[in-house]
Specification:
The structure is a single chain. Helix 7 (226-238) runs parallel beside helix 9 (259-273). The protein has 10 helices and 10 strands. The chain is of the alpha/beta class. It has 2 domains: 1-38; 42-373, Glycosidases (TIM Barrel). Helix 7 links the parallel strand 7 and strand 8 (245-249). The protein is globular and about 55 Å long. The longest helix has 37 residues, at 2-38.
Length: 377
Protein backbone atom coordinates (compact mmCIF):
# COMPACT_ATOMS: atom_id res chain seq x y z
CA UNK A 1 0.00 0.00 0.00
CA UNK A 2 2.82 2.39 0.93
CA UNK A 3 4.60 1.45 -2.28
CA UNK A 4 1.39 2.23 -4.23
CA UNK A 5 1.11 5.66 -2.57
CA UNK A 6 4.77 6.40 -3.29
CA UNK A 7 4.20 5.36 -6.93
CA UNK A 8 1.13 7.60 -7.21
CA UNK A 9 3.07 10.49 -5.67
CA UNK A 10 5.96 9.91 -8.05
CA UNK A 11 3.59 9.70 -11.04
CA UNK A 12 1.81 12.90 -10.01
CA UNK A 13 5.06 14.83 -9.74
CA UNK A 14 6.21 13.35 -13.04
CA UNK A 15 3.02 14.53 -14.77
CA UNK A 16 3.38 18.00 -13.24
CA UNK A 17 7.04 18.17 -14.29
CA UNK A 18 6.30 16.99 -17.83
CA UNK A 19 3.39 19.45 -18.09
CA UNK A 20 5.60 22.36 -16.98
CA UNK A 21 8.36 21.24 -19.32
CA UNK A 22 5.87 20.94 -22.19
CA UNK A 23 4.48 24.42 -21.50
CA UNK A 24 7.98 25.87 -21.36
CA UNK A 25 8.86 24.23 -24.67
CA UNK A 26 5.61 25.46 -26.23
CA UNK A 27 6.21 28.97 -24.90
CA UNK A 28 9.79 28.89 -26.21
CA UNK A 29 8.51 27.73 -29.59
CA UNK A 30 5.90 30.49 -29.67
CA UNK A 31 8.47 33.11 -28.68
CA UNK A 32 10.81 31.91 -31.40
CA UNK A 33 8.00 32.14 -33.95
CA UNK A 34 7.25 35.68 -32.78
CA UNK A 35 10.91 36.66 -33.01
CA UNK A 36 11.07 35.29 -36.55
CA UNK A 37 8.09 37.39 -37.57
CA UNK A 38 9.36 40.53 -35.83
CA UNK A 39 12.80 40.22 -37.40
CA UNK A 40 11.90 40.41 -41.10
CA UNK A 41 14.65 42.60 -42.50
CA UNK A 42 13.04 43.40 -45.84
CA UNK A 43 9.41 44.50 -45.81
CA UNK A 44 7.20 42.95 -48.50
CA UNK A 45 3.80 44.22 -47.54
CA UNK A 46 0.17 44.38 -48.56
CA UNK A 47 -2.29 46.76 -46.87
CA UNK A 48 -5.49 44.71 -46.69
CA UNK A 49 -7.44 46.69 -44.08
CA UNK A 50 -10.58 46.92 -46.21
CA UNK A 51 -10.58 43.18 -46.76
CA UNK A 52 -10.52 42.79 -42.97
CA UNK A 53 -13.52 45.13 -42.74
CA UNK A 54 -15.69 42.69 -44.67
CA UNK A 55 -15.25 40.29 -41.75
CA UNK A 56 -17.15 37.06 -42.49
CA UNK A 57 -18.52 38.25 -45.83
CA UNK A 58 -15.12 38.61 -47.50
CA UNK A 59 -15.46 38.55 -51.27
CA UNK A 60 -14.23 35.40 -52.94
CA UNK A 61 -10.80 35.76 -54.48
CA UNK A 62 -9.11 33.54 -57.05
CA UNK A 63 -5.62 32.90 -58.31
CA UNK A 64 -4.79 33.56 -61.95
CA UNK A 65 -6.04 30.09 -62.90
CA UNK A 66 -9.44 30.63 -61.31
CA UNK A 67 -8.88 28.57 -58.17
CA UNK A 68 -10.42 30.00 -55.01
CA UNK A 69 -7.83 31.25 -52.53
CA UNK A 70 -7.54 32.35 -48.90
CA UNK A 71 -5.91 35.76 -49.02
CA UNK A 72 -3.25 35.31 -46.35
CA UNK A 73 -2.19 31.88 -47.58
CA UNK A 74 -1.98 33.28 -51.09
CA UNK A 75 -0.10 36.38 -49.92
CA UNK A 76 2.49 34.22 -48.19
CA UNK A 77 2.82 32.03 -51.27
CA UNK A 78 3.60 35.01 -53.53
CA UNK A 79 6.23 36.40 -51.17
CA UNK A 80 4.38 38.82 -48.88
CA UNK A 81 5.77 38.79 -45.33
CA UNK A 82 3.88 41.71 -43.76
CA UNK A 83 0.32 43.05 -43.71
CA UNK A 84 -0.35 46.70 -42.97
CA UNK A 85 -3.48 47.63 -41.01
CA UNK A 86 -4.84 51.17 -40.53
CA UNK A 87 -6.28 52.18 -37.18
CA UNK A 88 -8.75 55.01 -36.78
CA UNK A 89 -10.16 56.43 -33.55
CA UNK A 90 -13.87 56.56 -32.90
CA UNK A 91 -16.33 54.05 -34.34
CA UNK A 92 -14.88 52.41 -37.43
CA UNK A 93 -17.16 51.95 -40.41
CA UNK A 94 -16.48 50.28 -43.75
CA UNK A 95 -13.97 50.51 -45.40
CA UNK A 96 -12.18 50.84 -42.05
CA UNK A 97 -11.97 47.61 -40.07
CA UNK A 98 -12.81 47.53 -36.37
CA UNK A 99 -10.10 46.73 -33.85
CA UNK A 100 -11.77 43.36 -33.29
CA UNK A 101 -11.58 42.56 -37.00
CA UNK A 102 -7.93 43.61 -37.13
CA UNK A 103 -7.08 41.45 -34.13
CA UNK A 104 -8.72 38.45 -35.78
CA UNK A 105 -6.84 39.03 -39.03
CA UNK A 106 -3.59 39.44 -37.11
CA UNK A 107 -4.00 36.01 -35.54
CA UNK A 108 -4.51 34.54 -38.98
CA UNK A 109 -1.47 36.41 -40.26
CA UNK A 110 0.76 35.01 -37.52
CA UNK A 111 -0.51 31.52 -38.32
CA UNK A 112 0.80 32.11 -41.85
CA UNK A 113 4.13 33.52 -40.55
CA UNK A 114 3.22 37.04 -41.69
CA UNK A 115 4.19 40.10 -39.66
CA UNK A 116 1.91 42.95 -38.56
CA UNK A 117 2.40 46.64 -39.37
CA UNK A 118 0.04 49.02 -37.55
CA UNK A 119 -0.81 52.36 -39.14
CA UNK A 120 -2.23 54.81 -36.57
CA UNK A 121 -4.14 57.65 -38.27
CA UNK A 122 -5.04 59.44 -35.00
CA UNK A 123 -8.30 60.61 -36.55
CA UNK A 124 -11.91 59.49 -36.76
CA UNK A 125 -11.61 59.73 -40.55
CA UNK A 126 -8.89 59.28 -43.17
CA UNK A 127 -5.63 61.06 -42.37
CA UNK A 128 -3.54 62.19 -45.32
CA UNK A 129 -1.71 65.36 -46.46
CA UNK A 130 -5.02 67.17 -46.94
CA UNK A 131 -6.80 65.89 -43.86
CA UNK A 132 -5.39 65.46 -40.35
CA UNK A 133 -8.51 65.94 -38.24
CA UNK A 134 -8.07 65.50 -34.50
CA UNK A 135 -10.38 62.81 -33.03
CA UNK A 136 -13.63 64.29 -31.74
CA UNK A 137 -13.02 63.15 -28.17
CA UNK A 138 -9.67 65.00 -28.17
CA UNK A 139 -10.93 68.30 -29.56
CA UNK A 140 -9.87 71.36 -27.56
CA UNK A 141 -7.14 69.61 -25.56
CA UNK A 142 -3.90 71.40 -24.75
CA UNK A 143 -0.70 70.05 -26.30
CA UNK A 144 0.24 68.33 -23.04
CA UNK A 145 -3.15 66.68 -22.62
CA UNK A 146 -3.21 65.69 -26.29
CA UNK A 147 0.22 64.09 -25.94
CA UNK A 148 -1.00 62.18 -22.87
CA UNK A 149 -4.05 60.97 -24.80
CA UNK A 150 -1.94 59.87 -27.77
CA UNK A 151 0.42 57.90 -25.54
CA UNK A 152 -2.38 56.21 -23.59
CA UNK A 153 -4.41 55.36 -26.69
CA UNK A 154 -1.39 54.05 -28.60
CA UNK A 155 -0.37 51.89 -25.65
CA UNK A 156 -3.91 50.54 -25.22
CA UNK A 157 -4.32 49.50 -28.86
CA UNK A 158 -0.78 48.16 -29.33
CA UNK A 159 -1.08 46.14 -26.14
CA UNK A 160 -4.21 44.42 -27.46
CA UNK A 161 -2.10 42.95 -30.26
CA UNK A 162 0.70 42.05 -27.86
CA UNK A 163 -1.67 40.41 -25.38
CA UNK A 164 -3.03 37.98 -27.97
CA UNK A 165 0.46 36.97 -29.07
CA UNK A 166 0.66 39.06 -32.27
CA UNK A 167 2.95 42.00 -31.45
CA UNK A 168 3.44 44.39 -34.39
CA UNK A 169 6.78 44.35 -36.17
CA UNK A 170 6.24 47.96 -37.29
CA UNK A 171 4.10 50.73 -35.83
CA UNK A 172 3.50 53.87 -37.85
CA UNK A 173 2.88 56.99 -35.76
CA UNK A 174 0.52 58.98 -37.95
CA UNK A 175 -0.32 58.62 -41.62
CA UNK A 176 1.39 60.81 -44.26
CA UNK A 177 2.17 63.49 -41.69
CA UNK A 178 4.14 65.87 -43.92
CA UNK A 179 1.69 68.69 -42.98
CA UNK A 180 1.66 67.58 -39.36
CA UNK A 181 -0.92 65.56 -37.45
CA UNK A 182 -4.01 66.22 -35.35
CA UNK A 183 -4.72 69.75 -36.51
CA UNK A 184 -4.76 72.50 -35.38
CA UNK A 185 -2.24 71.86 -32.56
CA UNK A 186 -0.15 69.53 -34.66
CA UNK A 187 -0.39 71.43 -37.95
CA UNK A 188 2.95 72.06 -39.69
CA UNK A 189 3.39 74.95 -42.10
CA UNK A 190 7.13 75.37 -41.71
CA UNK A 191 7.61 77.11 -38.37
CA UNK A 192 10.13 75.65 -35.93
CA UNK A 193 7.60 75.70 -33.08
CA UNK A 194 5.13 73.75 -35.24
CA UNK A 195 7.74 71.10 -36.01
CA UNK A 196 8.39 70.76 -32.28
CA UNK A 197 4.66 70.24 -31.63
CA UNK A 198 4.54 67.48 -34.23
CA UNK A 199 7.64 65.93 -32.67
CA UNK A 200 6.05 65.97 -29.21
CA UNK A 201 2.92 64.25 -30.49
CA UNK A 202 4.95 61.73 -32.48
CA UNK A 203 7.20 60.83 -29.55
CA UNK A 204 4.15 60.44 -27.31
CA UNK A 205 2.89 57.79 -29.72
CA UNK A 206 6.32 56.18 -29.70
CA UNK A 207 6.29 56.03 -25.90
CA UNK A 208 2.94 54.29 -26.00
CA UNK A 209 4.23 51.68 -28.42
CA UNK A 210 7.42 51.00 -26.49
CA UNK A 211 5.50 50.55 -23.23
CA UNK A 212 3.61 47.71 -24.90
CA UNK A 213 6.17 46.31 -27.33
CA UNK A 214 9.81 47.35 -27.02
CA UNK A 215 10.86 45.37 -30.10
CA UNK A 216 8.41 47.00 -32.51
CA UNK A 217 10.05 49.33 -35.02
CA UNK A 218 8.70 52.90 -35.17
CA UNK A 219 8.03 54.46 -38.58
CA UNK A 220 7.78 58.11 -39.61
CA UNK A 221 5.50 58.21 -42.67
CA UNK A 222 5.72 61.16 -45.07
CA UNK A 223 4.13 61.93 -48.43
CA UNK A 224 5.06 64.42 -51.10
CA UNK A 225 7.36 64.93 -54.05
CA UNK A 226 11.13 64.84 -53.66
CA UNK A 227 11.38 68.48 -52.63
CA UNK A 228 8.59 68.19 -50.06
CA UNK A 229 9.82 65.09 -48.27
CA UNK A 230 13.39 66.43 -48.18
CA UNK A 231 12.28 69.71 -46.63
CA UNK A 232 9.80 68.22 -44.15
CA UNK A 233 12.09 65.38 -43.18
CA UNK A 234 14.91 67.73 -42.34
CA UNK A 235 12.64 70.07 -40.37
CA UNK A 236 11.36 67.19 -38.24
CA UNK A 237 14.88 65.88 -37.66
CA UNK A 238 16.00 69.34 -36.58
CA UNK A 239 13.08 69.40 -34.13
CA UNK A 240 14.39 66.24 -32.45
CA UNK A 241 12.13 63.53 -33.88
CA UNK A 242 13.47 59.98 -33.54
CA UNK A 243 12.32 56.69 -35.08
CA UNK A 244 13.56 53.43 -36.62
CA UNK A 245 12.27 53.55 -40.19
CA UNK A 246 11.47 56.18 -42.76
CA UNK A 247 8.25 55.46 -44.65
CA UNK A 248 7.34 57.23 -47.89
CA UNK A 249 4.24 57.11 -50.06
CA UNK A 250 5.11 56.97 -53.74
CA UNK A 251 2.44 57.37 -56.41
CA UNK A 252 3.64 58.72 -59.74
CA UNK A 253 0.62 60.95 -60.24
CA UNK A 254 1.17 62.81 -56.98
CA UNK A 255 4.86 62.43 -56.26
CA UNK A 256 6.51 62.45 -59.67
CA UNK A 257 7.26 59.79 -62.25
CA UNK A 258 11.04 60.12 -61.93
CA UNK A 259 11.54 57.11 -59.69
CA UNK A 260 15.33 57.39 -59.71
CA UNK A 261 15.22 60.95 -58.38
CA UNK A 262 12.61 60.08 -55.77
CA UNK A 263 14.61 57.14 -54.45
CA UNK A 264 17.74 59.25 -54.34
CA UNK A 265 15.94 61.73 -52.09
CA UNK A 266 14.71 58.90 -49.86
CA UNK A 267 18.27 57.66 -49.53
CA UNK A 268 19.61 61.15 -48.83
CA UNK A 269 17.17 61.49 -45.93
CA UNK A 270 17.99 57.99 -44.77
CA UNK A 271 21.66 58.89 -44.55
CA UNK A 272 20.83 62.01 -42.55
CA UNK A 273 20.03 59.95 -39.44
CA UNK A 274 21.30 56.48 -40.48
CA UNK A 275 17.81 54.99 -40.54
CA UNK A 276 16.62 52.77 -43.44
CA UNK A 277 13.61 53.60 -45.60
CA UNK A 278 10.56 51.75 -46.88
CA UNK A 279 8.21 52.72 -49.70
CA UNK A 280 5.21 52.42 -47.42
CA UNK A 281 2.62 52.83 -50.16
CA UNK A 282 2.54 52.48 -53.90
CA UNK A 283 0.02 51.28 -56.49
CA UNK A 284 -0.76 51.58 -60.18
CA UNK A 285 -3.90 50.98 -62.29
CA UNK A 286 -4.36 47.83 -64.33
CA UNK A 287 -7.17 49.57 -66.21
CA UNK A 288 -8.94 52.93 -66.37
CA UNK A 289 -12.31 51.22 -66.65
CA UNK A 290 -14.71 50.78 -63.74
CA UNK A 291 -17.21 48.27 -62.45
CA UNK A 292 -19.25 49.95 -59.70
CA UNK A 293 -20.90 53.37 -59.34
CA UNK A 294 -18.23 54.93 -57.11
CA UNK A 295 -15.77 57.33 -58.71
CA UNK A 296 -12.24 55.94 -58.90
CA UNK A 297 -9.28 57.85 -57.46
CA UNK A 298 -7.22 57.09 -60.57
CA UNK A 299 -9.26 57.18 -63.75
CA UNK A 300 -7.63 59.58 -66.20
CA UNK A 301 -4.85 59.09 -68.73
CA UNK A 302 -3.31 62.32 -67.41
CA UNK A 303 -2.66 60.50 -64.12
CA UNK A 304 -0.43 57.91 -65.73
CA UNK A 305 3.34 57.92 -66.00
CA UNK A 306 4.81 57.64 -69.48
CA UNK A 307 5.97 54.13 -70.38
CA UNK A 308 3.50 52.63 -67.90
CA UNK A 309 0.12 51.88 -69.41
CA UNK A 310 -3.02 51.24 -67.42
CA UNK A 311 -2.83 47.52 -68.17
CA UNK A 312 -1.91 44.36 -66.31
CA UNK A 313 1.61 44.59 -67.72
CA UNK A 314 1.85 48.30 -67.00
CA UNK A 315 0.93 47.72 -63.36
CA UNK A 316 3.48 44.92 -63.04
CA UNK A 317 6.20 47.01 -64.67
CA UNK A 318 5.51 49.88 -62.26
CA UNK A 319 6.03 47.59 -59.29
CA UNK A 320 9.19 46.16 -60.80
CA UNK A 321 10.46 49.69 -61.45
CA UNK A 322 9.84 50.93 -57.90
CA UNK A 323 11.45 47.86 -56.35
CA UNK A 324 14.42 47.89 -58.74
CA UNK A 325 15.22 51.58 -58.23
CA UNK A 326 14.85 51.29 -54.47
CA UNK A 327 17.06 48.22 -54.34
CA UNK A 328 19.99 50.21 -55.71
CA UNK A 329 20.38 51.74 -52.25
CA UNK A 330 21.66 49.82 -49.23
CA UNK A 331 19.25 51.74 -46.98
CA UNK A 332 16.19 50.43 -48.86
CA UNK A 333 14.16 48.04 -46.70
CA UNK A 334 11.18 47.17 -48.82
CA UNK A 335 7.82 48.22 -50.18
CA UNK A 336 4.12 48.04 -49.45
CA UNK A 337 1.23 47.81 -51.94
CA UNK A 338 -1.81 49.77 -50.83
CA UNK A 339 -5.13 47.88 -50.84
CA UNK A 340 -4.48 45.13 -53.43
CA UNK A 341 -7.76 43.40 -52.53
CA UNK A 342 -10.25 46.30 -52.37
CA UNK A 343 -12.41 44.67 -55.03
CA UNK A 344 -16.06 45.35 -55.77
CA UNK A 345 -18.85 44.19 -58.08
CA UNK A 346 -21.16 45.78 -60.62
CA UNK A 347 -23.78 46.37 -57.92
CA UNK A 348 -21.41 48.42 -55.77
CA UNK A 349 -22.70 51.93 -55.08
CA UNK A 350 -21.35 55.00 -53.34
CA UNK A 351 -21.82 53.27 -49.98
CA UNK A 352 -20.17 49.92 -50.55
CA UNK A 353 -18.35 50.39 -53.82
CA UNK A 354 -14.60 50.75 -54.28
CA UNK A 355 -12.75 53.86 -55.50
CA UNK A 356 -9.70 51.60 -55.85
CA UNK A 357 -11.17 48.74 -57.91
CA UNK A 358 -8.85 49.43 -60.87
CA UNK A 359 -5.76 49.76 -58.68
CA UNK A 360 -5.95 46.37 -56.99
CA UNK A 361 -3.93 43.29 -57.79
CA UNK A 362 -7.13 41.40 -58.62
CA UNK A 363 -9.27 42.06 -61.68
CA UNK A 364 -13.00 42.76 -61.82
CA UNK A 365 -13.68 39.00 -61.62
CA UNK A 366 -11.49 38.89 -58.50
CA UNK A 367 -8.76 36.89 -60.23
CA UNK A 368 -5.13 37.59 -59.35
CA UNK A 369 -3.29 39.71 -61.87
CA UNK A 370 0.35 39.50 -62.88
CA UNK A 371 1.22 42.13 -60.28
CA UNK A 372 0.01 39.85 -57.48
CA UNK A 373 2.82 37.48 -58.43
CA UNK A 374 5.42 40.22 -58.39
CA UNK A 375 8.88 38.85 -57.64
CA UNK A 376 10.17 40.67 -54.55
CA UNK A 377 13.81 40.52 -55.66
Amino acid sequence: MHRFKRWITFLSFSIIFLTIESCEKTNTTNQQAIQNILSFDTVKAWDITTFAAWQNSNPTLFDSSGNQIQILEFAKKVGVNTIRLRILNGTQQFPHATISQLLTLSKQAYQNNIAIWLDFHYSDVWADPGNQTVPKQWEGLTLKNLCDSVESYTYLITNLFVAQGTPPAIVQIGNEISPGMMWPIGKFNGAVAEAKNVTSLFLSGTNGVKRASKESKIMLHLAGNSNTIWWVGNEFLNAGITFDLWGFSYYGNWHGCDTKAFMQTCDNLSRRNSKPFVIAETAYPHTLNWQDQMNNVFGLTSQLCSNYTATEDGQYNWLRNVWFEGSKFSNFRGMGYWEPAWVTDKNGNNTNGSPWENMGLFDFDHKALKGAYFNWK
